[in-house]
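Changelog entry: the DNA-binding MarR family transcriptional regulator record was regenerated in this release. Current contents:
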Amino acid sequence: MATNEAEMQEKLGGAPQSKQALRLWLRLLTCTTLIENRIRNQLRAEFDTTLPRFDVLAALDRYPDGLTMGELSRCLMVSNGNVTGVVNRLVTDGLVSRTASPADRRTHFVRLTDKGQEDFRRMAEVHHGWVESMFSGIDAADADQLYNELERLKRSVFAFDEKSETS
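Regenerated structure tokens:
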């Protein structure tokens, strides 16, 4: 393993402190990808569903009165086109209802059906267990510290975005 670490250091510019941000980004990306792949596989195996479907159900669960398709897209940070296909399948499966806005027929509200709420709650409980299991190697104090550091990183990214927009 030491050889692999040394090779990685050489590829990233030599000294352990050089390119720290890049190393951190790659570590975050690796962890995210590993967790996401595990969850995708578990959702498929246990519930015959996909992560995008789960994410839509989770977003709608947080908004019992429903969301417009645009609000749902922003909430999930994906394009309207991506959401439309997933929502169409969830409507067909009876998990989500879609109704036109009385004020603007071009705008549609989507919300969980009773079946959607029931299915999501069952999946969410199991999903919670998977996440707990994957994070079980991190004690509470370290988890709190990591959470706080990631919050600082998020603020830094938002500040960068704001600075880029004004430049």
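Helices lie at 2-11, 20-47, 51-62, 69-76, 80-92, 114-134, 140-166.
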